[in-house]
């Protein structure tokens, strides 16, 4: 049984059990089962998510920056792709927050025992303070205190220095690649426990709140799906048309195999081989560009994850009756953009990053319980949005650099064999994805 199905079963079982306990209203169940066992398991699972944040960001970012290979590329292909990735992520979360503000998911809902406005968020700093405080005075203290903005800045700076040292850094890079694999394995271990954590969190929540809790969650799902589709079919396609002049309908048709694969695996990293095939053989991006921009995008381009963080933040702020204000939402945008650089392209990691964003604006981490049950389903759509963003940026950069084959793009049969090549065994997919993730260096232009 797939993890998605297990989480769905855990969520549904939690709803049924929690609603039954809420209806029965037995003191023993409320005190020892809900307030005891369910609370303990749920807290352990949330803590396990939180403990992954700092090491995951550090090793993922080091590997991502080191994977560039040549700092000079940042001046051209690297600089253009990095700028576009950051721009699309910022636009994505801004759209998400705007739509969530208009729809207002979570408004009018009050959690039992938590009156609206009783949970006070810490005062959000000004935008100037946010950017000024990105530079840490003591990186060790930043790591110990979990100051993620400072950790991200220091790690990127360290990664650039590592690349500049060349061959001297090879042992360090291999060690970081190994530790990154270890962190990915820990994420897998934690996510294996997700069905049980989801069951306990959802059961505890519904036991305390009742079945009416499902209504605002559906509003959250609808808002999130709407924001994801708007970014996928409107924002990214307008950007593609304006900066490359290519036909968005042809582009989407040729990207369909990679999007289907991404939706089924919910992993940007596992989709790298298929995305590369579609971008080079079906769309016409030269391998000299695609071999760098696609793995690079799988590391730092997380538009879908950023959209989830924006919608979830507005949803939870409404649920808890907390007014974040303009400065608070600007902080969320800055955090989501920078956090996306350190978000690994594997299922479930976006949820880890959400805890960081919530901490930054002072929203209760426990609120994740409200959206955790549906997050895996949303992750599948988010991954399709992520890899489409990678392909859009790769195509734009290739067009700008003259590394694009228009004849391939215009040929309706170009790369058609790619559809059949997707029917490869799962072990081969994992090997290809692992190699691309560990060695995402671009090939020299010919």
Report on this model:
This protein is mainly α. The protein is built from 21 helices and no strands. The protein has helices spanning 3-24, 27-51, 53-66, 77-103, 127-132, 139-145, 148-164, 170-192, 194-209, 214-244, 248-254, 256-265, 272-283, 287-300, 303-319, 325-341, 349-361, 369-401, 406-410, 418-421, 426-438. α13 packs parallel to α18 (369-401), α15 (303-319) runs antiparallel to α16 (325-341) and α16 runs antiparallel to α17 (349-361). The radius of gyration is 22 Å and the shape is globular. Residues 113-125 and 417-428 have low confidence and may be disordered. The chain crosses the membrane at residues 33-61, 82-103, 148-166, 186-207, 219-243, 326-345, 351-372. Its main location: membrane. It comes from Jiella sonneratiae. Keywords: Cell membrane, Membrane, Transmembrane, Transmembrane helix, Transport. This is Dicarboxylate/amino acid:cation symporter.
Give a quick precis of the structure.
Keywords: Cell membrane, Membrane, Transmembrane, Transmembrane helix, Transport. 75% of the residues lie in helices and 0% in strands.
Could you outline the blueprint of secondary structure elements for this entry?
Layout lengths: L2 H22 L2 H25 L1 H14 L10 H27 L23 H6 L6 H7 L2 H17 L5 H23 L1 H16 L4 H31 L3 H7 L1 H10 L6 H12 L3 H14 L2 H17 L5 H17 L7 H13 L7 H33 L4 H5 L7 H4 L4 H13 L8
Helix pairs in contact: 1-9, 1-18, 2-9, 3-7, 3-8, 4-10, 4-14, 4-15, 4-16, 4-18, 9-18, 10-15, 10-18, 12-18, 13-14, 13-18, 14-18, 15-16, 15-17, 15-18, 16-17
């Amino acid at each position: 049984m797939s993890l998605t199905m297990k989480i769905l079963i855990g969520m549904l079982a939690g709803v049924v059990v929690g609603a039954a306990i809420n209806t029965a209203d037995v003191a023993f169940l409320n005190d020892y089962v809900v307030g005891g066992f369910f609370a303990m398991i749920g807290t352990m699972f949330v803590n396990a998510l939180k403990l992954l944040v700092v090491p995951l960001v550090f090793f993922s970012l080091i590997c991502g920056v080191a994977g560039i290979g040549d700092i000079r590329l940042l001046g051209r292909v690297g600089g253009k792709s990095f700028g576009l990735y950051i721009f699309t992520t910022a636009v994505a979360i801004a759209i998400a927050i705007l739509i969530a503000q208009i729809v207002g998911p979570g408004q009018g809902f009050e959690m039992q025992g938590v009156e609206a406005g009783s949970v006070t968020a810490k005062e959000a700093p000004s935008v100037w303070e946010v950017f000024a405080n990105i530079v840490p005075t003591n990186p060790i203290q930043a790591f110990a205190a979990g100051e993620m903005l400072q950790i991200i800045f220091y790690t990127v700076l360290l990664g650039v220095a590592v690349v500049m040292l060349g061959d001297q850094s090879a042992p360090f890079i291999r060690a970081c690649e190994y530790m990154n694999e270890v962190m990915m394995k820990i994420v897998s271990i934690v996510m294996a426990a997700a069905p049980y954590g989801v069951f306990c969190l959802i059961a505890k929540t519904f036991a305390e709140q009742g079945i009416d809790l499902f209504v605002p969650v559906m509003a959250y799902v609808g808002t999130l799906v709407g924001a994801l589709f708007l970014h996928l079919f409107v924002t990214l396609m307008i950007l593609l048309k304006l900066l490359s002049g290519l036909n968005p309908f042809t582009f989407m048709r040729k990207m369909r195999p990679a999007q289907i694969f991404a939706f089924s695996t919910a992993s940007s990293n596992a989709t790298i081989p298929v995305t590369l095939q579609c971008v080079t053989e079906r769309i016409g991006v030269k391998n000299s560009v695609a071999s760098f921009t696609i793995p690079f995008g799988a590391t730092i381009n997380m538009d879908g994850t950023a959209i989830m963080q924006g919608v979830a933040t507005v949803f939870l702020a409404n649920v808890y009756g907390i007014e974040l204000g303009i400065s608070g939402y600007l902080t969320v945008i800055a955090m989501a953009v920078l956090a996306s650089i350190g978000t690994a392209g594997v299922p479930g990691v976006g949820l880890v990053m959400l805890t960081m964003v919530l901490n930054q604006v002072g929203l209760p981490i426990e609120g994740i319980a409200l959206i955790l049950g549906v997050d895996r389903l949303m992750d599948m759509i988010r991954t399709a949005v992520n890899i489409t963003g990678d392909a859009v940026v790769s195509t734009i950069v290739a067009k700008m650099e003259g590394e694009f084959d228009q004849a391939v793009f215009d040929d309706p049969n170009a790369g058609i064999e790619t559809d059949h090549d997707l029917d490869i065994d799962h072990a081969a997919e994992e090997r290809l994805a692992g190699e691309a993730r560990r060695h995402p260096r671009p090939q020299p232009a010919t």
